[in-house]
Amino acid sequence: MSKRSLTDLPNEIANSLLEIGAVALQPNDPFTWTSGIKSPIYCDNRLTMTYPEIRDLVAEGFAAVIRERYPDAEVIAGTSTAGIPHAAWVAQKLNLPMAYIRDKAKGHGKQNQIEGRVLPGQKVVVIEDLISTGGSSLKAALAVREAGAEVAGVLAIFTYQFDSAKQAFADENIELDTLSNYTALIEAAVKLGKVAESDVATLQAWRQDPQSFGK
Questions:
Q1: How confident is the model over 90-115, as pLDDT tens digits?
Q2: What DSSP string runs through the chain?
Q3: Global pTM?
Q4: Residues in the chain where the model's pLDDT stays below 50
Q5: What are the residues whose beta carbons fall under 8 Å from the beta carbon of 181, sequence distance 6 or more?
């Protein structure tokens, strides 16, 4: 994947997510998240697994970012559960070891939180499907640190671009890269006719203050 195509990747991924229904936008009939937050967007990136061309586009995108920005990566680690398949495909493309990170240590056996071999000092790229607040991704990254390895960066398919998530990663001094983002998604949705131009202000307002949306 060329540098030019890396630049084009956010729009290409956004188009793909919209076309398969992995992301849906309903600015006038918002979804309700588990947390109770009203949201004009619902994201289910697991659907990318169903479409070979799109999952390969995602894997090639991740691989391209790693080659360019994290060339010293030694292990690809997926978050449980959504990041696991993508980490496996990326690790295969890069011919690197793969591991995965549970949300907490097992309560039996060796009580592992990291499955697969991650050695102290190794540079690890963590693969996630979605960045919302960033909490679960950072928890996985910190588990890698606790194992004595170095977190080269966290990569995700998509981010809502919440300022709180950006700050959380900055506070832990952990690099975050995503293949696409909320801004690119809105642009793609307008071009594809998924939402009206008049809905853009509403969609942007949600990202700025999700807690107050719909109230």
A1: 999 999 999 999 988 755 556 689 99
A2: --HHHHHHHHHHHHHHHHHHTSEEE-TTS-EE-TTS-EESEEE-GGGGGG-HHHHHHHHHHHHHHHHHH-TT--EEEEETTTHHHHHHHHHHHHT--EEEE-SS--SSTT--SEES---TT-EEEEEEEEESSSHHHHHHHHHHHHTT-EEEEEEEEEE---HHHHHHHHHTT--EEEEEEHHHHHHHHHHTTSS-GGGHHHHHHHHH-GGGTT-
A3: 0.93
A4: 2-4
A5: 10, 14, 158, 159, 160, 161
